[in-house]
Each structure stands twice: as C-alpha cells, then as structure tokens.
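Protein data sheet
==================
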Amino acid sequence: MKLPTSSFYYRPKDKSVKDKRKQADLIGRIEAICLEFPRYGYRRVTAQLKRESLFVNHKRVLRLMRESDLLCRVKRRWVKTTDSRHGFPRYPNLVKDVVVRSLNQIWLADITYIHIRTGFVYLSAILDAFSRRVIGYAISPRLDASLTLEALRMAATERRPGPGVIHHSDQGVQYASAEYTEELKALGFQISMSRRGNPYDNATMESFFKTLKQEEVYLYEYNTIEDVRARLPYFIEEVYNRKRLHSAIGYVPPSEFEEWVLNREKHELPDQTLLTLSIQC
C-alpha cells in the first residue's frame, strides 16, 4: 500500500489503562533484568526479553533504560600480568584466522588480577573458544605456574578431551615454563602463543575478563582472598556459564549452547546453524 512503516506502528498519545499497565510491567521486567545483570546493555536486555516471549524493539528498550537511568557505565582498567622475559621456548600462534567449528578445538588461557585490601590475588581461567564457556579456573595469591596448572587440570578433568586440542595463551612464564608445557604435551595438546605484548591475539579472553570485572569485581568490595574464593566461582559457574547471554553465540548462555551442540539431533539443530555461529579467532 506504499505506506510508511511509522503508520503501522502509530498509536495515539492518550494511552489506555491497559497500555499503561503493559508499559509499567515492561519497565518492571527491564529493571529486574538490570538488577540481576547490572552490566547488561540494552541489546542483551532486549535479547533476554525475547527469550521470555516479550518481543520489544531494541530502540524502545534503549529509550526506557535511558529514561530509568539503567544504562550501564563502563569502568576500564588494565594492569600487566604477563612476564615474557624468560628463557623458555616460545611457540607460534596456531589460531590466527582459524575458524572454530567444534568444542575442544581451541582452549584459550590467560591470567588477570583482582584487588583486595592487602594487595592482589590472581585468577587463571581457560575458555572453550567455540562455546565461550569457562571450563577451568584457579585463584591464588601467587602469580606462578602452579596457578595455571590448577586451572588446566580442572579443565582437563571436566572435559576429558582427546589429543589435538590447541591450547592458546600469551608468552608469560607461567605458560612457557617446562612444568606447564610438559603437562600440555602429556595431554597431546598443540601449544600456541600470542605475539609478545599483543593482547589482541587473545581477545576472547580479554573480553571475558572485561565482563568479569564490570559485572562482578567492580560491583563488590573484596577484603580477603576468601571473599574472592566465595564469590567468583558462583559468578563463573552460575551467572556467566549458565545465565548470561553471549552475543557471539546467538545470545544464549554458554552452557545452553553446548547442550545444543552436543544434542543437535535431539534438538533438531542443523549443522548449518552451527556454521553460522562459528567463531574466527
């Protein structure tokens, strides 16, 4: 009929009581989502509403969040945790421009710091590059190879992968040490490392740590390492892995995405869908 789209969506300014109630219910649900996930932006809030069968345009969600002062404010900070000044062998980058198409194809590893009252504690984490799920982690007051080994052993016990997994990390001494690389070789893993001083070679891990800091660490005051050990595992396992929507895998939580992959025939998820969601490192 050659009518503008705005004509279809036009509604009179004088809203009925029913429309006002719907608007109030929508705002209430948006506020509840933002309370549970304080660092969600309007796109993730929109995706969560759609998962709950509330189909709302993302522009409307943005407007309502702005009017209710619910838009998150980003806090950025970066501290170097990589010491690549060592005499251990360095390995080439095996994941550059590689398209990840399956679980346990590439594991990504890195370390970040968490500030407490008396100094710092360190978190070592390992992600599956395809599902973006955290599969291993460890917390320690010491920045050494035992920290990364604990995370690796947790991931290996959890996944029990076959040989051929590409383990990608930076060139830090914790990952280049003989003890760590020997364990990787014993597992039959291929060893891959980022270029020196280039965090973009492991951007997926940097993205996870950014999420961890903004949605958990910056929102709470950690006084001791016990506080960190009490809160971080819950955020990683219950929030990040099981609840938080991830844009890179179609706005679903990593655990749910893995269930789709492992049971794609049962869930009638065709291979083409998996190819669409493939990730380029």
About this structure: The mean pLDDT is 83.
